[in-house]
Amino acid sequence: MQDVDEHSFTAHRDTPDQPFPCASEKGIKPTLDGIPEQSCPTLLKESASDPVDGHGSEVRISWTVKVPALACILFFTLGSTYCQSSLPPLKSTLKAQIQDVNNSRYGAISSSDHLINGVLLIFSGIAIDYYGPILAGLVSSTFVVLGAIVRAVGGQKASFPIILGGQILSGIGSKTLETVQSKLYSHWFRGDTKRGRGWIGLVTGLDMAFGRLFSLMGNATAIPIANGTGQWYWAFWIGAILSAFALLLIVIYLLLEKSLPESAQLMTGRRYLKQIQAQQPVTAHDNPTSHSRPTSLLYHWRLLTYSILNLPASFWLLAITQILQAGVAHAYTSNLSEVVQVTRGTTKLVAGYTSAIDRPHHHDSRLWHLLRSIRTEDVAGFRHGLVVLGSLALSSNAIPFIASIPLLVSSQESIGTAYGIWRSFNSSGITITDVSVGAIQDRTPKGDNQYNGVFYFLIALKAVDVLYGLIYDFLDIRFFGSVLRLNEQDRLAKESQESEADRLQGLRPARRRWTAFGLLVLVVLIATSYVLYVVYSMKS
């Protein structure tokens, strides 16, 4: 086994932009202490002769098992989604009932659950790959339940700090739960040349449809619950109850998966490492007194960060170019109820129903979505009735991108990390956009036109995304291997004919410069989100 520098996980290369070692059979492969060199290219090795691998092996699972598993996974985010979506209809109520809350502070509340995820999702994604999604799901769902309870108590006491604390506490788990779902969908439904046709696109669309349904519940029921109970904060308590129900479903899924043979269970990095260590003879190199033994902190840090180093350049390009686009959609929906109420003179109840109309719809064309989004948002604030039409453009905001990540990141040992980093970009962008929208509104004179500046800001950001839709199509053909254009059957046929050299062309493998640049952009984005959040949420 060749030695690795103690302070570097990757081996040195002559060319500055050469793919990372594990992405190339010709490059120098780094080794992990205790793991044979030939295992490095895929820590969770896919092999036709290794049916124990739950990541792309030849294990075929019956739909009689997949359907109950899917039914549980779809509801993992029921409570967290309801809690978040029940907040916008209550914006005016919050400002009226709690003296400390203005538009900027509402933006702080609305984005606070995303704030913590700017950093947390990176590490939670790595942990999901290594320790498994179920353990992460149990911990995350527990935080969601606790946060929902704290938020409800804050509403009952009319306390801005307590509500804010509950949102942050809930945010520790809410987005990690989405990464858990994505990891499990990739495990159960991603297709490859061994297992045949996959259903990841269909399942992703189904997941988004259920997410919109949960959002519909929150938007449409918050005001009726407040009116029916006479207490506006009771919608927060309903969110806490639904969060507890979602936690119960995670426990049920855990029992379901544990009832399956080990070959059908998802392979985690920790379990694979134990299997490898069990196969290796004890040598002086593995002596427990050695500083480089597999139990050392440095060793495990190298193992965990491997997932980041293995992410392809195409993924980083997609994540970097979408840094504020999720924020546009979130800022639009989180303020839509008040937009309808202020600009159309409707009641809170009608505004809540109107803002929820977009939830049941979903479409699958990225470019059409982007074009429709910019055109409808352009006129939504100025023409009667088109607020509803504008909201329809948001229904497909995330589907194309979420479904594209497993196609760009083919190595299953990094898929949880990829989703974590993707959502970290999104969460930081949402925080920046939400706080900015609140600040813009506070500086605009009150009245029917108080949202004009907000719409101009969102339109400018979305106009850039229209150009991205055209650029992605070119990049996919030229640098991504056409994985985004091909249907499932054509993609599998193409992959079966590709050589290893073909897979290392363009931006398909991991590249040092793209990884470094992507991490730099993410750090700057996270820092910016924290600065804006502190400035606008803490000042009086």
Automatic annotation (TrEMBL):
<dbReference type="InterPro" id="IPR052187">
    <property type="entry name" value="MFSD1"/>
</dbReference>
<feature type="compositionally biased region" description="Basic and acidic residues">
    <location>
        <begin position="1"/>
        <end position="16"/>
    </location>
</feature>
<keyword id="KW-0472">Membrane</keyword>
<comment type="function">
    <text>Lysosomal dipeptide uniporter that selectively exports lysine, arginine or histidine-containing dipeptides with a net positive charge from the lysosome lumen into the cytosol. Could play a role in a specific type of protein O-glycosylation indirectly regulating macrophages migration and tissue invasion. Also essential for liver homeostasis.</text>
</comment>
<dbReference type="InterPro" id="IPR036259">
    <property type="entry name" value="MFS_trans_sf"/>
</dbReference>
<keyword id="KW-0812">Transmembrane</keyword>
<dbReference type="GO" id="GO:0022857">
    <property type="term" value="F:transmembrane transporter activity"/>
</dbReference>
<comment type="subunit">
    <text>Homodimer. Interacts with lysosomal protein GLMP (via lumenal domain); the interaction starts while both proteins are still in the endoplasmic reticulum and is required for stabilization of MFSD1 in lysosomes but has no direct effect on its targeting to lysosomes or transporter activity.</text>
</comment>
<feature type="transmembrane region" description="Helical">
    <location>
        <begin position="514"/>
        <end position="536"/>
    </location>
</feature>
<protein>
    <recommendedName>
        <fullName>Lysosomal dipeptide transporter MFSD1</fullName>
    </recommendedName>
</protein>
<dbReference type="InterPro" id="IPR011701">
    <property type="entry name" value="MFS"/>
</dbReference>
<feature type="transmembrane region" description="Helical">
    <location>
        <begin position="232"/>
        <end position="256"/>
    </location>
</feature>
<feature type="transmembrane region" description="Helical">
    <location>
        <begin position="199"/>
        <end position="226"/>
    </location>
</feature>
<feature type="transmembrane region" description="Helical">
    <location>
        <begin position="454"/>
        <end position="475"/>
    </location>
</feature>
<feature type="transmembrane region" description="Helical">
    <location>
        <begin position="385"/>
        <end position="409"/>
    </location>
</feature>
<feature type="region of interest" description="Disordered">
    <location>
        <begin position="1"/>
        <end position="28"/>
    </location>
</feature>
<dbReference type="Pfam" id="PF07690">
    <property type="entry name" value="MFS_1"/>
</dbReference>
<dbReference type="GO" id="GO:0016020">
    <property type="term" value="C:membrane"/>
</dbReference>
<keyword id="KW-1133">Transmembrane helix</keyword>
<feature type="transmembrane region" description="Helical">
    <location>
        <begin position="134"/>
        <end position="154"/>
    </location>
</feature>
